[in-house]
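When time allows, look over one protein, given below as sequence and tokens. The question is which stretches look regular and which look disordered:
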Amino acid sequence: MSIEQLLILTWCWCYDLSIEAAAASANCSVKAAETQYSQCRRVCFAALDDREACPEAGLMGGDGHLIQIDECSIKARRKRAANGRGRLGPGDQQEPHRGNADEQAAVADDAAIAQEEAAHGNVENIAVDEAENAEDNDRAEGWVFGLCWWRSREEKANGIPNETRFFAVRDRTAATLLSLIQNHVAPGSQIWSDCWRSYARIAQLPEGYTHLTVNHSKDFTDPVSFVNTNAIEAAWSRLRHKIVRTKRGVGKELRFHLAELWWKSLQRVPVPSRNARNNKTKTHPMIYMNFLNLISRTYPV
């Protein structure tokens, strides 16, 4: 392929165009577009592993900063607690006459699923079908651990987005998850999570983390401390949508897809709005140049 075609495909990848649309824009085959998209993800993976080349990949949080953590099975239709809770925000209320609390949570969860499927073209159903129909070595499966650096409204207004990092993990044991937390979360940070037993020793780690939890079997948001995991849980739908849109080769390249999502979470800016509570973001207008600079820093001549 020509340099011009490679640059066009890179631009398309930066702005999340589908592989088919990228191939049409660059006047090349879908296979060639897939290859270039894969190379872009590998750049992210290499750069984020080198904090000199990518200083923005340093430790998350710090004194006075909040990190939300959670884990998710990417093959699951929807992450739920045992009784179906853990998905709704504090503003999602059910009418008390519609069954008991568990039944109300299930109804509300099903409604949320229907809304998300309508918005994303049955994303989660397709995700299961793709995994079940794929060859064994091409399945997107297993657990993913996520960390979200929550930003205040003032920080978001100044162009500082929530940063989200995802990591494929073999299991959800304390040894696995606590090691990732220590490697990516700065000492003194405040960490919010659910009550998964592997998180029980976070406050005892030498980094001096403050650890607060919400019991999803009782509340979506803790009524006293207001602790929740809404920000990181919201990231799971974006993760699934991304995995399903790509479809091809996700299982073999899952770690590179996760690196792409991490880097692109840093390339978001707030959407101007008169509503101070507006949390919408858009792709940074300089993302293409930022990525070319990332390439030059990661692979210096």
In short: Residues 1-58+284-301 form one domain.
